[in-house]
Specification:
By secondary structure, this protein is an all-alpha fold. The protein has one domain. 72% of the residues lie in helices and 0% in strands. Helix 2 packs across helix 4 and helix 5 crosses helix 6. The protein is globular and about 50 Å long. The termini are far apart.
Length: 144
């Protein structure tokens, strides 16, 4: 049931990304081109997602004591802004600004036939592997 619900939720998310045009890197890059072909529609998509999520969280947390398919809700508890958070956010933002893809838009774009998507996904996986290796080496150094 968990896999089926994850598949359904992923399909709904991917459909929303595709319909809104956010799987098209050119549309996203036009949002960042303020002096040229600026396209403010990304603000509307993100604002709509924020409002929907805020309402959804309120409804779910009021209606349910525990989640349906998990033992507990997995909500972040840390409010610490550290170098890891800032660095990761910077790398994410730079990558998004250069390529026009974020992971949420790139995965649905795989099905839309954009060839550069495969390169982005490969680079993203490489970045994840590199980050985990660096993290493991830093943890190893700290424990010695």
């Amino acid at each position: 049931m968990r896999v089926l619900s994850a598949l359904l939720i992923g399909m709904i998310f991917g459909l929303g990304i595709a319909i809104s045009g956010m799987a098209n890197p050119a549309k996203v890059l036009n949002f960042f081109d303020i002096a040229g072909t600026w396209d403010p529609s990304l603000i509307l998509v993100m604002g709509g997602a924020l409002v929907t999520a805020a309402i959804g969280y309120r409804i779910v947390f009021r209606a349910l004591k525990d989640p349906v398919l998990e033992p507990t809700f997995n909500v972040p508890t840390s409010r610490t802004i550290d170098a890891r958070l800032v660095g990761g956010s910077a790398v994410f933002g730079i990558g998004w600004g250069i390529t026009g893809f974020c992971p949420g838009g790139a995965v649905p774009a795989l099905g839309l036939g954009y060839t550069e998507t495969f390169l982005f996904i490969a680079a993203m996986i490489g970045g994840i592997v590199l980050a985990r290796a660096l993290q493991a080496s830093v943890l190893k150094v700290r424990t010695i």
